[in-house]
C-alpha cells in the first residue's frame, strides 16, 4: 500500500554525495553577488569558444579561473557557466576550503534518499525498544560486543528487528526519495571542548552544500500490507510490527526526537564552562523544535537526519544506559588517544549562526 507523505525541511540538511568541489576548478565564487556557481563544463567551454575578442595565442596567465574566463568574455554572468547556483551564507568562502557537495538526482535536484529517512526511523525505533526495557538489555555486556570483543549493536539489532534482512520488520517499510530545488552553501563550525571551556575550532570549519530550510515536497512511503498479513499468519516476523502502525509510529518518532533535544538542552544548562554565543542560538532553536513537536498533529512527526547531527543523534544515545565499565571500554575503542574520563563526545557541528543541522517534519497526507 502506497501512502502519500509530505516532508518539510525545518533546518538545513546535508546528505553528502561523497564529493567535494574545489574552488576555481569545480565552482566559482562571485563575492559581490554572494553566490557560488557549480560549474557546467560545457558552458565554460562555450564561454571560451564563442569569444571573438581573443584567441589562445594571446591569453594571459591568470591566478584564477574567473579571471581567465573574463579575458574571453569580460561580461559573462553567473548563469553563463553554472550547472547550479548556490547562495552563500554566513560570509564568504575560504579560498583554501573545498565545499562538500549535496547528493543530487539525475535531473539535478537535491536528493533526500528514502534510505536516509529509513535510517533515522530505525535509530528512533532502536532507542524506543531499548528504553521500553529500561535499558536493561544494554547493561548486559555480551549484548554489546561481537566475537572479537569489538563494540557493536548488531546483536541488539537482530533481537529487536529480526535475525536477517528477510526477517527484519523494517522490510515492510519502504520510503521513497524526496527531491528539492534550492540548495545553498553554508559555513559550519565545530564546537570543541578545550579544557573546561567551549570554543569554535577554526581548523575544523567546513563549507557544505545544504538543502535550504522551508522547502517541502511529497514522497511515497510503501507499507507492504500483503507481506505483513502473510508473515503474521506464518509468524515470519518474531517481533511486533505494531510500531509501524499510525497509532504508535508518529508518537515514537516524536518522543525520540524530543527526548534527544531535551537531554541536549539539559547538558548545556548544567555545563559551567564558557561558550560562544552561537550555543545560545542553538539552544533557542532546539526549544523551538520541541515546541513544534508538542504541536504536532496525530499523523505528524519531526525527525533529525543527515550529516553534522552528532554522535548521539546517529546512535540514538543508547550508551546512556551502559554500565560505567562498558562505557569507558567503548570510549577507549572509539577514541584511543584520549583518556577515558574526557567528555565523549567532546565536539559538535552547527551552522555559523548557531542553527542545528538536520531537522525535518514528516506528515501523512489525508
Shape: globular
Number of domains: 2
Number of helices: 9
How much beta, percentage-wise?
A: 15-25%
Structural class: alpha+beta
Helix proportion: 25-40%
Cα-atom radius of gyration: 24 Å
User: What's the main sheet like?
Assistant: 6 strands, mixed
Which oligomerization state do the chains in this entry correspond to? Answer: single chain
* Distance linking N and C termini: 14 Å
Order of helices and strands: EEEEHHEEEHHEEEEEEHHHEHHEE
Which residues sit in consecutive blocks of at least 5 with pLDDT less than 50? none
Average the pLDDT over all residues and give the rounded result. 88
Number of strands: 16
Features:
366 residues, alpha+beta, 2 domains, 6-stranded mixed β-sheet, 5-stranded antiparallel β-sheet, 16 strands, 24% strand, globular
Report on the architecture of this protein.
This protein is of the alpha+beta class. The chain has two domains: 2-17 and 107-179 and 214-364, no CATH class; 23-97, no CATH class. The protein is built from nine helices and 16 strands. The strands form four sheets. Strands 2, 6, 10, 11, 12 and 15 form a six-stranded mixed β-sheet that branches. Strands 8-13-1-16-14 form a five-stranded antiparallel β-sheet, with helices on both faces. The radius of gyration is 24 Å and the shape is globular.
